[in-house]
Here is the input.
Amino acid sequence: MQKMLHIDPAKCTGCLSCEMACSYENYGVFATAKSRIKVFDFHHTGRKVPYTCTQCDEAWCLHACPVEAITVDKVTGAKVVSESTCVGCKVCTIACPFGTINYVAETGKVQKCDLCGGQPACAEACPTGAITFIDANWTGLGKMQQWADKLGNQPAAATA
Here is the structure.
């Protein structure tokens, strides 16, 4: 059963536990700057909203990568960057419409959420349940697809 991160912004307190857990899981240090999940602070409303890679079905990042450094993990479905293959060209950062792939100057490569191999540290660390790792069918993905189809979300016609 495919699982995905589900984010409920109404439950986020802005504690940054998710960012700390992510940086520790991936780099062994507590440094929010190294996190693959970010908490956006809407100052005018006081609302905090965690955001990270949504693991798009379309995966613009994967299709844009000229060296095929982004692949799909067959177990988790996550789009994963192979650091040994990545050349740091940043084309994927431009292709991602959500801005959730980041260039890391220290390594000269990009980073993005890989769902921690199926046990996302951010979800485990979240004290309020604002970030959960749930069955993809429970997220409303099907309803969103039906709604998008009503609005004309049809495959593009093949060009000859």
